Amino acid sequence: MTGIIDKVGSLKAQDPIYLGEDRHEAPKELFKTMASIIDAAGHRPGSSLIDVGCATGEAITYLIRRFPDFGSFCGVDISPAMISRATERVSGASFVTADIALPSAFSDMGQFDVVWCSGVLSCFDDPTVPLSNLFGLAKPGGSVIVAAMINEHPVDAVIRYRRTDSEDGIWETGWNLFSRGTIERLLSQLPYRLSLVWTKFDMPFSIPKTADPMRTWTIATENNPFQTVNGISQLVNPWIVHARVDALAGGRQSAI
């Protein structure tokens, strides 16, 4: 998700980064791990999938090839430029501009068998509304698959940083960290009966450092030869939570 603004910090629009690169033919390893969860969930041919925070549609390109028997694919992002590029770049999917931070943002979008979301929750100081919106998109029996930076310790962290090589001096967000306990507590407050499975993602190979200090790279540590880090010396440890929506408690409704 790109270009989100809050009251105490900003996530500067990532359009120049994503519009300046093309990974449609080189899917991220994280996408592959998330897709394996869809495989294991056993969704039927004709299933529908939505990617919330789709950027230029790189994940959807991969998913269309991985699941050619699915019936429909949809991408959502807050950036009109991203949605325009995704529409041009990806055939066989629809794309919509929307803001996951707004309550009931997706109330008129229908529901999907698979709700996919990667790298979005860390943009927010409070993920309550985004999580509610994500689960409102899921059909009964559907899967919500979310990849985010999760702390295994019982600590949440709101991160602000600014580039000292930049003249604007803007404090930015985008690397917030939530504990597993916090996410499970928020999910327990939603009006659904859920089955949760957590999967830790480990980068399987080395990633070189680039000129942009906020683009992640890997270092070798005592316990991990490919530990992902960023320019604020933060260890980046993504987890994937797969929530199966077993039944709805009173139908589609807002938990807010």
Task: Explain briefly what this protein structure is.
The chain has 256 residues and is an alpha/beta fold. The protein has six helices and ten strands.
Report on the structure:
There is one protein chain. With 256 residues, the chain is of the alpha/beta class. It has a single domain, classed as Rossmann fold. 21% of the residues lie in helices and 25% in strands. The protein is built from 6 helices and 10 strands, in the order ααβαβαββαββαββββ. The strands form 2 sheets. Strands 1, 2, 3, 4, 5, 6, 7 and 10 form an 8-stranded mixed sheet that branches. Strand 8 and strand 9 (227-229) form a beta hairpin. The longest helix has 13 residues, at 29-41. It is globular. The chain starts with 14 loop residues before the first helix and ends in an 8-residue tail after the last strand.
What is the string of helix and strand elements?
A: HHEHEHEEHEEHEEEE
CATH fold-type name: Rossmann fold
The level of helicity is 10-25%
Q: Which range does the strand content fall in?
A: 25-35%
Protein structure class: alpha/beta
Number of domains: 1
Mean pLDDT: 88
What kind of sheet is the major sheet? 8 strands, mixed
CATH architecture verdict: 3-Layer(aba) Sandwich
- Morphology: globular
